[in-house]
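Reopening this ticket.

The earlier resolution said the output was attached, but the attachment link was broken on my side. Pasting everything inline this time so it's all in one place.
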Amino acid sequence: MTIWKFLNSKRLRDYPRLILIASGGVIIFNIILRNGWIGGLTGILMWGDFIDYYAAGILYRTNIAQLYNPAIQESTQLKLIAPTVPPGVTFYSYPPNAAFLHSVLQYISLPISILILCFISLFCVVVAAKLMHQYLVPEWLDQGGLSYFQLSILIFSSFAYIEGFTAGQMHSITLLLMVGILIATMKEKWFLAGLLAAGLTYKPQFVIGFLIIWLVWKKYYAILSFILFSLIWNGIVLITKGINPYLDYVNFTKNMIYLPNVKEGFPNAILSTTYSLIASMIPIKYTSIWTAIYFGIILIFIILFGLLAYKVRKQSISNHNVILAMAMLFPLLITPYALLHDILLLFPVMILLAVDHQGDKRLLLLAIGVYLAMLIIPMLSFASKIALTGIIPTIVFIYCSQRSVKLLRA
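Inline output:
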């Protein structure tokens, strides 16, 4: 039996649904068997990242000078979930404008806030899947079984989504915003594209790829829209809290390059960038050298990406798909810090790569491999203490690079 007989349409349809059922069962039993805020099956803090957001909102309103103090962050979180004593808590890594947004949570109790977050998470995936199916999925792929419902199942059942959902992450909001920016760019709705990009500045590194494209393509309206709404959001923080929170944030993020070297206390198995993959394999004393080399490589990559975007600026949209896919990949390639739930972005990336490539078996294997790798590789990473999850976006980038070389030769 060849692999293609095994990978028939029925299995491709049903296996993700079975995985979703199994994952959903684990989540439910983890909650039912909980001990306070500790999951009964996982033994770790449930909704830990959201508790961190909630605590950051408290600090933003009451003691913003300590917003990026890990000890104060920890004590604030522990007060929220007392008498539960978790094996560990997370740290707040978002900029001050995100903390301003999270401060709104103080008007709602923590349990109710978590319920609302869960609803928003599910809703955002459904809307993102609907938009991708309507504007991105090619007709041949739709007829092959990738319906709006099936795409939703694929996202919900992916371990990248499950991990983020159980942690209380904002990953589905990020996915929806990125899909919105992508579609607005493809439809040349520049004001909307810039507005959505400004809404994503709680993770500013995620919009870099699109900003480069807009600059090279001279779509200044999108850039102006982005700047305007970014200034409004951050301006509120600057006027009411001053510039010190941003300076504290910059100083705090400088230490994040060392996360791949932390073998205990931080789950480097979910670190999902090319940087973390390599950094986790070298001694910490060489981290500064590796960082300098890496950002030198990234500078070259940004220049080449800009040249590629310039070359295809007047070509058909089918040639733009690879460029847009690489723009979506940017946060997983150029920054030291991104986590497993962030690679939900690979769903629109893989769809973009499928346009005009009907019957490409290599791409089908890549898509299946990415889906399965989201589950398998983090487990291998956990056992090896190496951030192997960074392999996933790296392989997709290599595929994109091969496709982009063909564009340069065209």
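Reporter confirms the inline version is readable. The two ends are 39 Å apart (CA to CA). DSSP finds 20 helices and no strands in the chain.
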